[in-house]
Amino acid sequence: xxxxxxxxxxxxxxxxxxxxxxxxxxxxxxxxxxxxxxxxxxxxxxxxxxxxxxxxxxxxxxxxxxxxxxxxxxxxxxxxxxxxxxxx
Length: 88
Description:
By secondary structure, the chain is of the alpha+beta class. The protein has 3 helices and 3 strands; from the N terminus they run E-H-H-E-E-H. Strands 1-3-2 form a 3-stranded antiparallel β-sheet. A hairpin with a 2-residue loop joins strand 2 (58-60) and strand 3 (63-66). Helix 1 (32-39) packs across helix 2 (43-51). The termini are far apart.
């Protein structure tokens, strides 16, 4: 919420500190800029993951989008790839 009391939203999220799965409808298009914030990686890294086929995305009017279900599948695959290795 801004100082004026209005909500400022970008693709369903308000601020970096408020990111969670409930901020996104599973089927609603999510801009890759917001995906980068959500995952804590750069936009360029998101673009590389799309290019490498690791994250499913689609183009609408020259901009790239994905969906929360695709992001969750990507995260699950990344976790599966680390299986057997210590995470922390």
